[in-house]
Amino acid sequence: MDRGKLKARALSQLSGRWGMVILACFIYGLLMSGGSGVSTSINMSTANVSSTFFIGFLAFALVGSLLSLILFGPMQMGMSNYMFTFVRTGNTAIENLFDGFKNFVNSLKIGLWYALYMFLWVGLPMIVLMGVSFTMMFAAAYGANDGMIFLIMLVAMVGSIAISIFSLIKIIGYSAMFYIKLENPDQSGVACLKKSEEIMRGQKWDFFVLQLSFIGWGILCIFTLGIGFFWLTPYQKVTEANYFYELLARNNLLRNNVPNGAENNNKNQDETQEDWHLYEDDRNAGNFVEAGKEDWNTSGNEYWKEKPTDQDGGDDLGSNRGSDESDKF
């Protein structure tokens, strides 16, 4: 995808609307960092309190972490909804940020699935690496020879680099998960997670470079004492939303057609179609969902065509798209 076009479109969409998106990103960041912030501050404060209160502080920190986990799914769904509504229409409301709570159970489940997969792919390897590090310290303390210490240090260093790279690959691979769930509410969390990995194949490096393109602005924001991040964060979020909008459009996973800022303004139909990779009949129909339903079963995507089973943990692939009203936002 053309990063320049995506970023230019984001700036065009934000023109005259910065305030509403800045406020949404601020509220989102405040809520998402609240639990972890409480946990961190409490852990730091335990250094100066007696052991009598340590268990109480630890319990409070655990509650903060649990709160973050509970909020994660609904807030991610709400933020995805806010951003897609914004790129589609140019108009949205703060209330859209909390739409994930309208169907709290399903939002919570997809957040928990994401957390579980990240723990299995990232958390467990990190625990293993920590075990190796402790082994290294134990060996050093009890007089292991220099060769053994060097070997353990080398394993720990290489392992740390490998886990970091692998973690980044997984995080990027799952990055479209919440947008897919938003556009396809009848699909289970596991299905959306696997579909995200599928459509991100061959796109991970592109998305990674897109993120890197904001580093220069991030450095400049540091010199503004962090104030610049109030503008950089919306810019980055809207650019990402445009990226995933186009990615989902390419894979026939959208409910609607062309987003705000990508209409036929000063363009002919072929140029607009090329920008968003939509078929002519989809554009004439004006409703991407209907065309997507047909393509879903005829595109050769075997995974997404699977029929539901009772043994897959509720993975209701291919089951009556959009028929479960309770699962919609």
Spell out the blueprint of helices and strands.
Blueprint: H1 3-14, H2 18-45, H3 51-89, H4 104-141, H5 146-173, H6 177-183, H7 189-199, H8 204-212, H9 215-222, H10 229-250, H11 269-276, H12 280-285, H13 288-298
Helix pairs in contact: 1-10, 2-3, 2-10, 3-4, 3-6, 3-10, 4-5, 6-7
Describe the protein.
Helices cover 69% and strands 0% of the residues. With 329 residues, it is mostly helical. The protein has one domain (3-327). α4 packs antiparallel against α5 (146-173). The longest helix has 39 residues, at 51-89. The chain is globular and about 65 Å long. The two termini are 29 Å apart. 30% of the residues are buried. Mean pLDDT is 74; it is low at 37-49 and 263-329.
Q: Could you describe the largest sheet, including whether it forms a barrel?
A: none
First-last Cα distance: 29 Å
Task: Return residue spans where pLDDT drops below 50 for at least 5 consecutive residues.
Answer: 37-49, 263-329
- Order of SSEs: HHHHHHHHHHHHH
Calculate Rg over CA atoms.
Answer: 23 Å
Strand content: under 5%
Number of strands: 0
Structural class, by secondary structure, is: mainly alpha
Task: Report the helical percentage.
Answer: 55-70%
Tally of helical runs: 13
What is the arithmetic mean of pLDDT? 74
Indicate the overall shape.
globular
The count of domains is: 1
